[in-house]
Amino acid sequence: MSFKPLFSRFLAANPGRLHFAAHSHHPWPDVTFDAHTRYWYESASGMDDKWDSIFGDLIPTLRRRLGGELGLGDGGSIAFAPNTHELVNRVFSSLEPAVRVVTTDGEFHSFRRQSRRWEEAGRAIVTRIPIEPFATFADRIVRAADGVDLVYLSQVPYDSGWVVKSLEKIVTEAPPSAIVVVDGYHGFRAIPTDWSSLAARSFYLAGGYKYAMAGEGACFMHCPPGVVERPIDTGWFAGFGALTERSDEVAYGPGGDRFWGATFDPSGLYRLNAVLELFEREGITVADVRSHVSALQERFLVAGRLPGDLMPPVGMERGSFLTFRTSDASEIHHRLRKRQVITDYRGDRLRIGFGIYHDPEDVDRLIAAL
Fold it and tell me: Are residues 133 and 180 in the same domain?
């Protein structure tokens, strides 16, 4: 089955491009165009009153859809922000420095940069656990978490694509006093994810930029009850319901409301809601996406023209992109780009991402280009 008709606008905008960086900027389905336009018209017709519709209709609907995807009930525990960086800093703001942090050497630039700056400023003491060897990772990070304040790791590390199957062990065996944050950006809508068993113990971050195919400005975080109930870094939307009342104490909303920031552009949430609605209407589950992508990856791998050493090795579960370790990663990436074949690389790792907007013929073109 081809899903390409759902992406006609994006694909027609640059028909010669062969986009295999699906772990980064996906094409957006056509429904996002209408959703983006709808936000403009609602802003024009409602102006300030548009927020009544956003918080009264859009947010509850989007929360329910995300809650259904992740096993989080009605999604009332979910907060939204323009990016996950803002949400992480809101969690960190309530910890007393120097915060003892254990994380990994495979986190995305945003957290890696921020955690290094915390160290420079004396606000954190950070231990980074190597992702490899994969087989012993869970035991090593659990041991390192003893006595720490914050545990931060990815569901699928961005520089390898390896799926951390031992998240339940890591989350449940972390010290009870430690806050646990899982970056699910490369897992959300790429691999089936049920967070219900971990919801009481850990934060879960993700967003629309990658596999949700909704673009920028649409990130969210599940906020476990009773954990960081009054973030120090807080915006006026975190007390939106009490805006017209006067109080000597800073008020916070319930559930995920307590982690809201300040005024933001909600157009990304309109797009994200439209994509999730599309998947509901068409009956496209995350398992369907996973099956389609896995078949494309297998087609690529059996062709045998691999650009480097596959990581993680065969037999270990990986996400929606393949990572190859090669000293020629940069050269291969740039040579492919000259042929309008889009991949990306990080150091000696070439990353090739597969999405539901790809067909087997696209994989054959990629193989030929390589």
Answer: yes
